[in-house]
């Protein structure tokens, strides 16, 4: 994990087939930026919805720092607007409406001092797909171990 990465959604790679990735900006409040700099973000149960031709991030949990201002009431799971070019948004809307895709966030990171969200167009995996993926990963690991000469028969 590089130093610019704020949080990863590892569960998404397990739950979905990732078809296409996009980068989106995110509209944040001041206290949220401070919390993100402290790494207080969880993307596990978050997803993206389309409302009125705009993308919104739901379910992302930004824990407020104890030093957050006294005159605001921080809402850790508030709906946050994602910022993308109109053509990209239209492509995503078309894929979600016509082909049955879902949009989920994969990661959040810093890029030139701004928080960016990596979102992906995904299709859900069935239970047998998840098992096959796990089996393939274990086989790749075992294969690397064998090729390296580290396999020991007991």
Automatic annotation (TrEMBL):
GO MF, one term, reads: RNA binding
Q: Does the keyword Transcription apply?
A: no
**Which keywords belong to this entry?**
Cytoplasm, RNA-binding
**Where is this protein localized, as stated in its record?**
Cytoplasm
Output the GO biological process annotations, alphabetical, semicolon-separated: trans-translation; trans-translation-dependent protein tagging
Name the CDD domains for this protein.
Answer: SmpB
Q: Which GO terms describe its cellular component?
A: cytosol
Q: Which Pfam families match?
A: SmpB
* Entry annotated with the keyword Aminoacyl-tRNA synthetase: no
The protein's superkingdom reads Bacteria
Q: What is its main location?
A: cytoplasm
- What family name appears in the similarity comment? Belongs to the SmpB family.
Q: What does this protein do?
A: Required for rescue of stalled ribosomes mediated by trans-translation. Binds to transfer-messenger RNA (tmRNA), required for stable association of tmRNA with ribosomes. tmRNA and SmpB together mimic tRNA shape, replacing the anticodon stem-loop with SmpB. tmRNA is encoded by the ssrA gene; the 2 termini fold to resemble tRNA(Ala) and it encodes a 'tag peptide', a short internal open reading frame. During trans-translation Ala-aminoacylated tmRNA acts like a tRNA, entering the A-site of stalled ribosomes, displacing the stalled mRNA.
Q: This protein is called what?
A: SsrA-binding protein
């Amino acid at each position: 994990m590089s130093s610019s990465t704020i949080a990863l959604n590892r569960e998404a790679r397990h739950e979905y087939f990732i078809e296409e990735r996009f980068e989106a900006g995110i509209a944040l409040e001041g206290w949220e930026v401070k919390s993100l700099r402290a790494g207080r973000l969880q993307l596990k149960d978050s997803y993206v919805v389309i409302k009125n031709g705009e993308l919104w991030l739901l379910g992302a949990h930004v824990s407020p720092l104890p030093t957050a201002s006294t005159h605001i009431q921080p809402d850790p799971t508030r709906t946050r607007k994602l910022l993308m070019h109109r053509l990209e948004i239209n492509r995503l809307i078309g894929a979600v409406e016509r082909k049955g895709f879902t949009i989920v966030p994969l990661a959040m990171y810093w890029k030139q001092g701004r928080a960016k969200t990596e979102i992906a167009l995904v299709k859900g995996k069935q239970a047998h797909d998840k098992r096959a993926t796990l089996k393939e990963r274990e086989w790749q690991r075992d294969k690397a171990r064998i090729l390296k000469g580290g396999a020991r028969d007991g």
